[in-house]
């Protein structure tokens, strides 16, 4: 059941990918709206998947990077849908949908048909760490995606190759979406780092073991602290903020997820 | 007479060449043109996308040279631009020139096909030529025909439906930069017509906060009243730029009014909020170097039109129908224009016959003791007789003159009636069987 729902979620995210791509290519705003609807429906099934996973058995092994990828995809999608209520960024679905699909797809690769769901720890700290870090990662990823689309749009506008009627979000909307995602994502990431340190401390008696994952996460946190200060205190320009958000997310992915995957 | 058209447009010439040739008041220039003996009538059309002179001439080769030197002179000896001039200038004669004028008025030759501004601009150019006496009966007829063609094109085709004028494109682009255009502050620098249109379009898009800055405080105040804006002098520009999200410029001047030095302090004050610069001025009012500033998006008239043309596919389909209308109207005008060749022959023939009629009438009346009413009756009779006899051949001559082969008819008419011969004297002109030629009849 869980596997079937997860597959259905992936299928809906894929539909959203295709519809958003068609919306962009054909300049069709209705296709973009359809993509957002498919993404929202996918997020609903995604949520049901996690609920079943959580209630049917003991807490799921979220510390498994593939499940974490799926969780990040879900939180990222929810964050995007929440942003839609505040900003006009429906066109961002063209990047969010593929990322959501990718998260679910990665999780599907290693999900057994009948997963053996065993708790990793009796404490709630590991789960809090995974949920908070995944949520932070997802939101910082959303900021990165908004930054990527901003840069593409900025480049087109600067080169005077504007696409009228393509339903792409305005630069201002993307900048705002990036700012909101960063403003929410960074505290979540911070809490993720703190709970991570608490978990390590509980397990090893020290706040850090010096693993690549821990060092990478801490470095990424430092870099993001700098970006947050530049953005909200130094009022950096929108293009530089977009570059920072994209570069920051790339570093985060390499340091934290990349290291974890390779390990 | 020949029709000659020389000019350049957005396709043939770059903006920097067009902006050097842009003319605010074409009146004095066309007056100068028609003062030359090679040019009989002229109309000068100067918009941000084209500079063209339509001329009527009896010496097309001399007129062509005259017009080329006119364009060269306007460049003020800039050798670099002059080198590009020959490539940029196109030339049309007679039928092609007629077609071109009609296509221009119908917005078929515009950057944005079907855009509504060009018809008004063409009418302005025509009016300026009429007011300074440079537009004679033939160009008058051509332009009236062109306006009628443009009207037909707009009503009989869907070419103008949903037309993306440059002003509307500017608004669409503003939506790509700003989330909500209605909350933005717009600054208009100058008072050009196109900028005013863009201002109107932004107003329609819901922009509430407008400011107008101009050299002439009076003109700024006029616009401010018309659009519910605030009026300012150019000395307030630094402060206004820092407050404005959209800057529309259309102001005259040798140097661009918006440069990096002008915008950098404004951007600092704006803390990275972007500025959308819509430069509709020709010459350009915004230095292209400001593109280096991250938060400035500059679109000049060429860039706006290029964006608009990307959305014009549907109107291009209607273009074929519009072209057919133009071809039909051109043919009609061409017939009228060609028929002008018959005018000298018809005028000479009428003159010759009228002279004979008047002379013979005088003779006849001198021999008759007539009262005034009889004289009038005989005079009317002679006129009616001449008109009825001439009606069919003159109509035929007019019709035939519209065709290229019709020249033969004109030549035969001149030969038969001896129109190129000296005016015969009264006696010689009298036919052998007339009473004048019969001595016994006296």
What does this structure look like?
The complex is a heterodimer of chains A (263) and B (442). Chain A has 263 residues and is mainly α. Helix content of chain A is 79%, strand content 0%. In chain A, helix 6 packs antiparallel against helix 7. The longest helix of chain A is centred in the middle third of the chain and has 34 residues. By secondary structure, chain B is an alpha/beta fold. Chain B is elongated, with a radius of gyration of 30 Å. At the A-B interface, helix 5, helix 6 and helix 8 of A face helix 8 and helix 13 of B.
Count of helical stretches of chain B = 18
Shape of chain B: elongated
Oligomeric form of this entry? heterodimer
Strand order within the widest beta sheet of chain B: 7-6-5-8-9-10
Average pLDDT for all residues of chain B: 83
Estimate the global geometry of chain A from the Cα principal axes.
globular
**Parts with pLDDT < 50 across at least 5 consecutive residues of chain A:** 112-120
Which bin fits the share of residues in helices of chain B?
55-70%
> What is the C-alpha radius of gyration of chain B, as a whole number of Å?
30 Å
- Proportion of residues in helical segments of chain A: over 70%
Strand content of chain B: 5-15%
| Content of β-strand of chain A | under 5%
Helix vs. strand class of chain A: mainly alpha
Mean pLDDT of chain A: 81
Q: Which residues of chain B sit in consecutive blocks of at least 5 with pLDDT less than 50?
A: 428-442
Continuous helix count of chain A: 8
